Amino acid sequence: MITGDLKSKIDKLWEEFWVGGITNPLTVIEQITYLMYSRMLDMQESKDEQRKALAGVDFKPRFAAHEQDYRFSHFANLGADEMMELVRDEVFRHFRTLSEKGSLLGNFMKDARLEIVKPSLLVKAVEMIKQLPLDRGDTKGDLYEYLLSKLTTAGINGQFRTPRHIIRAMVEMMEPNPARHERICDPACGTGGFLSSSYEYLLEKYSSLDSVHKEMVINQKGEPEAQYVYSGDLLNEYRNHVDYDMFHGYDFDSTMLRIAAMNLIMHGVDEPDIHYQDTMSQGFSDKFPEASHNAFHLILANPPFTGTLDEEDIDPVLLKTVKTKKTELLFCARILQMLKVGGRSATVVPQGVLFGSSKAHQSLREKLVEENQLEAVVNLPSGVFKPYAGVATAILIFTKGGETDDVWFYDLANDGYSLDDKRTPIAKNDLPHLIASWKQYRQGKGRPVDAFMGQKLKAQLDQQFQDGIGDSDWQDRTNKAFVVPRADLKANKYDLSINRYKEVVYQEEQYEPPKEILARLKVLEREIQQELVELEGML
After folding, report:
1. 0.85 surpassed by pTM
2. Helix/strand number for the chain, H first, E second
3. Rounded to the nearest 5°, which phi and psi values hold at 146?
């Protein structure tokens, strides 16, 4: 677990970067990522060297004989000026050559360069990296998540990161399952939040009770706080699939890809499949023909929206599905293509997708309802992405293939944070109710749940509904959660906005007769006049 002491050290290093002239938080994380990567390469090399010495197991060196000086353990002990020269001129050149050797992170190091210009800052950064517990799998992921959390509090770059609690809710609703060898993808992965949260979910669900450890740590407020360490020991049976074929991501920002790849590796995924690619372009179908069609069991995404693309750059296959330049519609079309038949998706969209009147909007909604199974529409409050964007959004949950019988709607009023620019924690939080209601609904529909988790989930849901956490009367449209049959959707041109179907109960207010109110006002007026006369007499 990442302790308060470790967080304070990271905060101090963050301040050193700002003082050193590096004020873009994304650049700070990128530079820290480079140094962490350098140390992890050295650690892996040392482990392989030890294994060869003890057991005679041969390996392919990451550092040639003449490159031993480029190892973190060597340059970390140099003086400031000597360290700066070696890291800037040789270590980063070595990073760039790794791309030729097929290394995952090496593929994203082609344009890597050191942005730190002050030798003293480099020394402080290296000293901090030396203290990080990169040899502890249960801490590395938390450590990197803490670094990424800086993006949400540091200007416009926060737009790259979907709020973690929203991601976690979507993951819990979709229940990724390694036992079915599911392949998960995010076609606009950014920093890899959906993929890393999915892995964290698996660790928690696939840990035996004996392997879950409780630790007390000191939080940032200086208070003791219980945290749990999940070993994921029951994942061992599926380890090869989890490490090499479960997690896939695409993005066209090389900085994002470096961070996403490091994020997943730090969490414990050995070789996530992360690629530099604009998934809207024809190049995606050309370079990744298998991934672009019928490839994935689960897609989790919050793709870029409210933008338009040059029609010449858009994959013609997408335009056959939905004739538009709007990114939010094109991404939905691409996700449908990327899913296997029976595959499912939870995707964040602007609410304009739900009720837009253009031909492209209506045709996409009709396709979701008539040619696929649109299962749920979760209405999110408009402040979820503040202070970076105030646009109202929703989560679409759908399965490829078949047809829709009815759609489950949920009106999420509060997500546990204020809906202003400050986004401070509050007591009201509908997310537990959302997740519990959704799972109850799916069980009632006879939809499959994770067989491994079946009994545990049933007991958990039973307790939740005994405590009044979930809803179960789906026909009552005054509830937070209710269902709407396909016929109603079709009659409304497949409008999916919740206000179209939600029923609001108005309570009649009782008021006193106007004459009585007026009489009371006259009495108050006389009292005021009398007090004014008394006040005047005192002057």
Report:
1. no
2. 21, 13
3. -65, -40
